[in-house]
TrEMBL record:
GO terms for cellular component: cytosol. SUPFAM superfamilies: S-adenosyl-L-methionine-dependent methyltransferases (SSF53335). Specifically methylates the N7 position of a guanine in 16S rRNA. This is Ribosomal RNA small subunit methyltransferase G. Its EC number is 2.1.1.-. InterPro entries: rRNA_ssu_MeTfrase_G, SAM-dependent_MTases_sf. It is an enzyme of class 2 (transferase). GO terms for molecular function: rRNA (guanine-N7-)-methyltransferase activity. The gene is rsmG.
């Protein structure tokens, strides 16, 4: 079992989480114990839980406005939603997850950590879920779906000007090239890549950012001259 007291760089973890670092350690402990036992995290991920999961997600907080309403879709083991609210307690976070066993685990972890986070069983594309969480400032997702499909689920949850933050891997550029037109048709702006946590995590976290410009199917207004 991984030693959750071992952090790649304790100074970095303290800078990211501040006085909530003990809660981040407790969350990491949940991930490498019951998270592995109940199939939310692979056993091989346990030794690198900080660099690949906890810190990798938490550094995305640098992209979030103060007091943002955030919906984490396909939340799974609470990534990135839980690390983000641990790093930024000013956030209002909802974790949306369709699988009952994962929802049960998330509810147990949220209760144990004593954090103000909502857990909602459902899919982002469901009408009831959209009605509950529409108007969000930010929608996050990690390893949930290809960009064009994720945009179709996430953009309707956002207010105009809100942003999708999709944590992606090395193929992010290729995915943008393939899906950019579809994203624009869904009411999103041009997808852009932002690297988060430079100097804190290696490699930095790759985030694809898409702003909601309008409702799907509505053409962009042309400026009058």
């Amino acid at each position: 079992m991984a030693d959750v007291d071992h952090v790649v760089d304790p100074a970095v973890a303290e800078r990211v989480f501040g006085d909530r670092l003990p809660l981040a350690r407790r969350y990491a402990e949940h991930l490498v114990t019951t998270g592995v036992e109940r199939g939310l995290i692979g056993p091989r991920e346990a030794p690198r839980i900080w660099e690949r999961h906890v810190l990798n997600c938490a550094v995305v907080a640098e992209l979030l406005p103060d007091g943002a309403r955030l919906v984490d879709v396909g939340s799974g083991a609470g990534l990135p939603g839980i690390p983000l609210v641990l790093a930024r307690p000013d956030l209002q976070v909802a974790l949306v997850e369709p699988l009952a066993r994962r929802v049960e685990w998330l509810e147990e972890v949220v209760a144990d950590l004593g954090i103000d986070v909502r857990v909602d069983r459902g899919r982002a594309e469901e009408t009831a879920v959209r009605r509950r969480w529409e108007g969000a400032d930010v929608v996050t997702a990690r390893a949930v779906a290809p960009l064009h499909r994720l945009a179709g689920w996430a953009l309707p949850l956002l207010r105009t000007g809100g942003r999708v933050l999709a944590l992606k891997g090395a193929s992010a550029s290729e995915e943008i090239a393939r899906d950019a037109v579809a994203v624009r048709k869904l009411g999103g702006g041009d997808p852009a890549i932002v690297l988060c946590g430079t100097g804190a995590v290696d490699p930095p976290t790759t985030v694809v950012v898409v702003e909601r410009l309008r409702r799907a199917g509505r053409p962009a207004r042309r400026e009058r001259r």
